[in-house]
Input
Amino acid sequence: QVQLVESGGGLVQPGGSLRLSCAASGFTLDSYAVGWFRQAPGKEREGVACLSSIDGVTYYPDSVKGRFTISRGNAKNTVYLQMNDLKPEDTAVYYCSADRTIATMMMGRGYWGQGTQVTVSS
Output
């Protein structure tokens, strides 16, 4: 059974850090592009970090560039999102995704996890 499971969310103060983890089962994550997306209440889902499977190309929107880093784990079938200098506007449910390309993943295709809540508040 194909599955993506996120973990690591929680409540953090502004300026703090969190590392989200995504564990895949039922398929080999190494051969897929991977990404993290978020959705805040009343807003559309947006991609915050993507990593291709072939050439290591990454994508970050300006809102998180320099603060968020996506990486594959040394253990197979894991992907991480390191989030530093968190801001209240980063509050959202964060989802892990995997598909053959970043482009198709950005269109909502591929595999998706259930999400983990990140709340940035003092």
Observations:
- The two ends are 40 Å apart (CA to CA).
- The chain has one helix and eleven strands.
- Helices lie at 102-106.
